[in-house]
DNA sequence: GTAACGATGAATTTCTGG
DNA sequence: CCAGAAATTCATCGTTAC
C-alpha cells in the first residue's frame, strides 16, 4: 500500500472575479512512502499550515508507525515519546451525556413560582478521560527542532493562562512596577471637530519589568535567527548523528524525486531536522526559479512567506528596508529576496487600472512573461509536470490553456481534471448535484465534478484529524463521501473537534448524532438566495484562511484550558498593572486587527476563533468596569496592551448615576446598580403589567420579590414611577454604551433601533483598548471597519482623539450606514468615509487590493462579527461557528489576514 | 410590532468525606 | 477544617409565530 504525500498550496481566489471557487493545488513530485503493514495506531503526517497561501503537508490515509521509510526520518526520541503516550493515553473515552434539567412544574402563575432548575444527577455521566494518543501523531509530524521551537513558544502562553499566578508572581517579584508619569488634559484632536472635546485622556504609563526568563527567551530567539540551521543543533548532537540524519533526509528527499543538488541546498539552508513541508517547498522554489523565473506571482509569494517565516530577526513592521537593516543574512540571500519582493503581489487584472501608490519605489507589476507563445507553452508544460501531474492530464490542460499567462488557471483546471479522474464515476452519477463549484473553465467539460469529501476536508479546511477519525465522523454525521457541501464539512469539523479524540479510539459508546444538521439547509438556501440576488457568489463561503496546526498533545504537553472569564478584566483595568502577553513576530505590529464577540459562546468556539486569528489568546472584558451596564465580551487583537488609558470624564457608572430620577421609586429590595447586557429586544408590556399587578401589595413576599427582580434583571427594567417598571430607553442605552444621546435617533424603526444598539460595541471598553494607538498615529489613522453597525469603533477612536483619515466602512444594513454617515458629518470629520461596500462577502482580493491602492494601506482592521449563533439568548440556533450568521466570522478572518498579508508585503 | 419561547456554561454556594 | 464534588444560581449582542 502506498502513501502519497502532497504539498498543497491552497489559495483563495477572489470569488467576485470567478463564478466558482477555485482552489489552487500545486502538486509536487509524489512523495511515496511504503507501508509495511497497517497498525492500530495511525499516524497523521501534517506539516505546517499557514495562512491562505500557506502550505499543507498531509497524508490522505493513515501511515503506520511501522512505516519503514518514515521511521528513518524519526528519531528514537520520537518513538519513545509516541510509545509512552500510547501507553498512557489509551483509555477509552466515553461520551459524556449531558445532564438533563428538570423544570419546576408550576410556571404559569407568577405567585409562588420559582424559575430555578435543578440538575438531575446523571449516573451515566462518566469522568472525562485524557485525550487519546491521536495527538501523539502530531508529535511525530514535527521534526525535532520544530518540536523544540513549539515548546519554547508555548511556554509564555501556558504561563499566561494562569493570570492569578502570574500577577501574583509579578507583584511578588518586583516593586518596580511604577507609574512613571501621569498627565491629564489631552483633548480631542482640535482639527477634527468644530466643538471642543468633552473627553480627556488620563495618561497612565505603566512599565513592566522584564523578567529574567523573558529576557533569556528573547535573547535565544534572536540568536537562533542568526545561526545557520544546521549549526543550531550541532551542539545538541554529535557529529556522526548529524551526518547520519543528513544522509537519511537526503535519501528520503531523493526518493521523493528531487535532485541531489537541490536537496543539499535545502538541507543546508534549513537543517536536517526541518519540517518536510519547509524543505519540499524550498526545493520547489528552487526548481521553479530554475525552470522559469516568471511562473507567477503566487509562487513568488510562497518564497516571501517562507523567507519571512524563517527570518526571526525581522522587525515587527516587516518593512523590507527594515528587514534588510536587521538581517544578517548573506548578500546573495538578500538579492534573492529583493528579487522576490520585486516580483510579488498585486497582479493587476487586465481591466483594472492600477493607481499610482504613494511613496512607492517599486512597481507592483510582476515581471513580464515570455512573449513567445511556444515558450509559454513549454514553460507551462514544464511547470505542471514538475508539480507531479500526469503527463496525459498535462496534455489536456495545455490543449486548452497552453499559452496561458496565469498559472493559477492552469492549476485550477489541472486540479479539477485530477479530481474528476480520481472520483468514482458510478458514485458520482448516484450522488445528488452539489453546490460545490469547480473552476469555471472546467464546467463545460465536467458537468458534475465529484469532489472527495475527505480531500476537501483535508485540503481546503486543513483538517488534521486522522483518517480513522474522519471516516467515523463521516458515518456519524451522515456526510456524503462525495460532494459534501461546505456547511456539512464545517459540521463535520465541529464534530471532529468535539469527538475526534474518541473517534480515534475503538470506542463503541460514542452515540452522538449529528449536532449540526438542523440548519444546514437554511444556510444553503441563504447562500443561493444571495447568489441569485447578486450579493455573493454561491461559493463565497470559502474555508478559513488561517488554521494553525493542531498542537501536539502529550503527557507533558496538554492543551491549555479555556481562558477564565471570571471578572472579565482582560489584561488589566485602568489603574491596574497590565498583564503582559507575548505575540509572535508574525502577528505583532501594524496593520492592527481587532475582533469582538460575545464572551459566553458555546464551549470550544472561542478556541476555534482563536485558531483562526493567529492563535492569539482572547481578552475577556466586561464593560461593567467602564459603564453602568454589563457587556461581557471577548476580544482578539494584536494591539499593544500596555499604556492603555480610558476616556474621561468617567461616564455614569451605576444606574442611579445614569438615571437619578428613578431613585425616588426604587424599591429597597432591588439591589441592582448595573444594567445587565443590553439585548436586541425590549421587554414586553405584559411583563411590566404582571409586575405591577403583583406589586399592588405594599410589601411583596420574598419569593415575589425574587421573581420580579429576576424579570427586572432580564429585561433591564427601571422604576420610573411608584410600582411602575419600565424598559430602559434607547437614549439611556446610548449613554450606557458610550454614544452621544440620539446617536441612533431618526434612522431606525423602533425595534430596529433597539436591535442596532444591542448589537453595538461598548464604546468605553473599545476606546480603552484603542487608546494605545493614539501615540502611534498622531497624524491620523486609516481604518477598515467590518460589520460597522452604528459605528462603535469609529466613535471610540474619535473620542480618544485619534483623527480618522480614512474609514472604509462595510455594513449591510442601510439604516446603520445612514446612522454612521450622519455621525460622521455631525462630528465634523475631515477624513474620508467610504461606504462603497455593503457586504463583507463582496470584499474579495481584488477589491481589497484596489482599496489598499486607493488609500495606501490600512492601519486597523476592526470588526465584531454577528453573534446570533453564539449568544446564550438564542434558544433556537445557538450553533456556534457553523451557524448561518456566525459563520461570517470567517469573512473577518479572511479579510483581516488578507489585508495584513498585502500590507506587510507592500513596499514602504 | 408584539409576545412567548429554554438551553447553556460559568460562577457561586452547599454538601460531603477525610 | 479543608478540598473536591455536587447542586444551585445567574446571565445571555435572539428567534419566530402571530
Question: Secondary structure elements and their pairing?
Answer:
Blueprint: E1 2-9, E2 31-34, E3 42-43, E4 55-59, E5 63-64, H1 68-72, H2 76-88, E6 101-103, E7 117-119, H3 134-141, H4 144-161, H5 163-173, E8 178-186, E9 200-207, H6 212-226, H7 229-234, H8 239-255, H9 260-270, H10 276-291, H11 297-310, H12 320-326, H13 331-343, H14 373-386, H15 391-401, H16 407-422, H17 425-430, H18 453-459, H19 467-476, H20 486-504, H21 520-532, E10 592-598, H22 605-612, E11 619-622, E12 632-637, E13 647-648, H23 655-658, H24 685-694, H25 702-715, E14 717-721, E15 724-727, H26 730-737, H27 750-758, H28 763-770, E16 781-786, H29 792-800, E17 804-810, H30 814-826, E18 832-834, H31 845-855, E19 860-863, H32 889-905
The structure holds a DNA duplex (18 and 18 nucleotides).
Given the helix and strand composition, which structural class is it? alpha+beta
Q: What is the annotated CATH architecture of the domain at 592-620 and 769-905? A: 3-Layer(aba) Sandwich
Based on DSSP secondary structure assignment, what is the total number of beta strands?
19
Distance between the termini: 52 Å
Q: Beta-strand level of the residues, as a percent range?
A: 5-15%
Count of alpha and pi helical runs: 32
* Order of strands across the main sheet: 11-12-10-19-16-17-18
Rg, Å, rounded: 29 Å
CATH class of the domain at 592-620 and 769-905: Alpha Beta
Mean pLDDT: 61
Tell me the CATH topology of the domain at 592-620 and 769-905.
Rossmann fold
Low-confidence stretches: 1-243, 290-371, 419-449, 505-560
Overall 3D geometry?
elongated
| Helical fraction | 25-40%
Major sheet attributes: 7 strands, mixed
Family: Belongs to the class I-like SAM-binding methyltransferase superfamily. C5-methyltransferase family.
Keywords: DNA-binding, Methyltransferase, Nucleus, Repeat, S-adenosyl-L-methionine, Transferase
EC number: 2.1.1.37
InterPro entries: C5-Methyltransferase, C5_DNA_meth_AS, C5_MeTfrase, SAM-dependent_MTases_sf, SAM_MeTfrase_DRM
